[in-house]
Amino acid sequence: MVDLYQGAKGYERFFFSRWRPSVIYCLNLGLARLLVWGPYPFISLTIGWRWCFQMYLGIKCDGSRTTMINNLGTPGYVMVLTLKELAAVRIHTTSPLLDWNNQGGQ
User: Fold this and answer.
1) Which of 41, 50, 42, 45 is nearest to 29 (CA)?
2) Which residues, at least 6 apart from 59, have a Cβ–Cβ distance to it below 8 Å?
3) Which helix (H) or strand (E) is 15 found in, with range?
4) Is 47 exposed, middle or buried (0-12, 13-18, 19+ CB in 10 A)?
5) Domain coordinates of the chain in residue numbers?
6) What pTM was computed for the model?
7) Confidence (pLDDT) at 61
């Protein structure tokens, strides 16, 4: 079994899932985008272009850990349950592409 906590900080929490995150709903109004992801609840609101104001709430996929465990031969997805990652407000760059590996932006 693969250690999901390899290299993690003491407060970080994860769980393993066989289900790939996918977009359930997308409302794109140009400078504003609302996304709802499943199968675990994750809602993201992004306002702006390139550098954006973003708010999100929910369980997101950790792309780095998912890639790490997939390279070790275990197919699946690592989901984040860290308290400070369940809800966030930030300003950063975002991608126009909707990808399970980048639910919260870049």
Assistant:
1) 45
2) 40, 41, 42, 79, 80, 81, 86
3) strand 14-17
4) middle
5) 14-93
6) 0.84
7) 93
